[in-house]
Amino acid sequence: MIGWIGLGHIGRAMAERLSEEYELIVWNRTLEKAKGFRNVAKSPEEVVEKADIVFLSLYDSNAVEEVSKRILSKDIKGKIIVDTTTNHHRKVLRFHELYKSAGAHYLESPVIGSVIPARNGQLTILVSGEKEAYEKALPYLEKLGKKIFYFEEPGKATKLKLINNFVLGAFMAALAEAIALGEKAGIPREELVEVLENGAGNSVVLKAKKEKILSEDYSTHFSIKNLVKDLSYAYDLALDANKTVPLNAVVRELYRVAFEKGLEELDFSAIYKIIREFSL
Ligand SMILES: NC(=O)c1ccc[n+]([C@@H]2O[C@H](COP(=O)([O-])OP(=O)(O)OC[C@H]3O[C@@H](n4cnc5c(N)ncnc54)[C@H](OP(=O)(O)O)[C@@H]3O)[C@@H](O)[C@H]2O)c1
After folding, report:
1. 246-274 pLDDT, tens per residue?
2. What positions does the domain 6-phosphogluconate dehydrogenase NADP-binding occupy (predicted)?
3. Residues contacting 23, CB < 8 A, separation 6+
4. Ligand 1 nearest-atom number relative to CA 86
5. Domain with 273 in it: what CATH number?
6. Residue span of the structural domain in which 18 resides
């Protein structure tokens, strides 16, 4: 039996994908989100009691800390924890230590891609942790991802993920500003998107978000709240690396406007709406 903790937007998509092939026991803090799964646990403790390999998909490192306290209250010797949460680069090192001292194996495994690639097993997965544990987790990771990068060094997967999400946020913001400008200059949105996707805007970001922008459907796959968390973590990484990141600051503050406007739970492609409507 495989354990799954955290059934948010991407957690649910990944858990559903795994459940096509494997028996799962799931837990989510808000119980209603576990609807549709056959084995729903009452607590994270119950999940680790019943499963030898347990996936986490939680909002941030504070959530991982809270849930880990509960997991670590049990005897988890030999168990593998695969943490797909996008974590803080320093906190993730602490998680490696905590699980190691409990005799368990912690794989830091942030994922690149969103709900649709997760549903189709098309994610890119970055993994840091012990090789032996990684090899045991590999069949499950392969069900979720098309490209898997393995690094032995703890923290490396998380650093790479944070750097990737800075590019994601910056690229989306650039596309949003470009489309908003084009419209203001009298060019229809459809035409702008078509030219950009055959020009400098051609990217996985535009491919993934094109329909959302054209139809102004900001239903959440990856929330602005989540992206701002990642950009803040990336900023902390920059502070620790003593590297100035001016673009990170601009992009982060741009998305942070969503909190003032009560739009932070929307998909991050809603940055287009924010830039257009609030003349940013
Ligand atoms: N969505 C994406 O496209 C995507 C892509 C790549 C990576 N990620 C990363 O994957 C993780 C999950 O993303 P998501 O989009 O699924 O987020 P989400 O929809 O916001 O879900 C967050 C999950 O964390 C749980 N949670 C939050 N705080 C908790 C706590 N203190 N104790 C227990 N559970 C807690 C939530 O439980 P409740 O339901 O009770 O609130 C929910 O299950 C994040 O780290 C995100 O950065 C997401």
Report:
1. 999 999 999 999 999 999 999 999 999 99
2. 2-150
3. 1, 2, 38, 39
4. 45
5. 1.10.1040.10
6. 2-153
